[in-house]
Amino acid sequence: MKRPSYDKVFSVEEYIRYEWTAGRPSDFIDGLLFEIPGSKDVNNEVTGNVFCILMERLINTDYQVYAHDVKVKIFGENKYYYPDLFITKEEKTDANRYIKFEPLLIVEVVSESSQVNDYVDKYIDYTKIPSLLYYIIVEPETSLITCYSKAETGEWFTTKLTKPENSIQLDALEISFTLKEVYGV
User: Fold this and answer.
1) How many CB atoms sit inside 10 A of residue 90's CB?
2) Is 146 in contact with 158 (CB distance < 8 Å)?
3) Does 163 lie in the same domain as 124?
4) How big is the CA angle at 83 (ends 16 and 125), to the nearest 5 degrees?
5) Nearest to 136 by CA among 89, 179, 93
6) What CATH code is carried by the domain that includes residue 108?
7) How far apart, in Å, are the Cα atoms of 65 and each of 89, 90, 103, 108, 157?
8) Same-domain pairing of 110 and 162
9) Which whole-number Å values give the CA distances from 155 to 116, 128, 132, 133, in the listed order?
């Protein structure tokens, strides 16, 4: 994992207050802040493509799609992350206006600085969230999408997709989309 942005250990309340005045968002892990680095334009383009796909597929449903600016709490841990994208059906309340607790799908579009963290640390943390059904990692500069899916038994299975015609099947959400749509090719 990367080095913390500050030497200070923050309480959750201090972290939330800090976020209101900070110029950049930070992940929160056991009291330490990890500033989220900027990314290349291709990351933003791919993230935008996936966001549009999900919004279009989930229009007129109870699902909400969030990008970048809303945190997810890791179940049973003192950790909060900003996924690139996620979907939830959580009822909106005052308690979850800035932090969501029940994502169903999380998508991370990796960058050079986040690759190990997305494939290892975040995989371990995200799969602790009881509501999570899918964790998708998108490589923005090559045609590779890794889709982790949770079976009814609670086990996680991995599918790697590389061809434009390959389809990402999210049966529990009743949607699918192709790599061609994700990469805009």
Assistant:
1) 16
2) yes
3) yes
4) 90
5) 179
6) 3.90.1570.10
7) 9, 11, 10, 14, 23
8) yes
9) 22, 11, 12, 10
> DSSP string covering 5-22, please?
S-SSPPPHHHHHHHHHH-
Structure tokens at 60: 């007129």
Find out whether 80 and 72 touch, Cβ atoms under 8 Å.
yes
pLDDT, one tens digit per residue, over 81-117 is 999 999 999 998 888 888 999 999 999 998 877 677 7
pTM of structure? 0.91
3 state SS of 53: helix
The verdict on 47 and 29 lying in the same domain is no
Q: Tell me the HSE value of 119 on the side-chain side, using a 13 A CA sphere.
A: 13
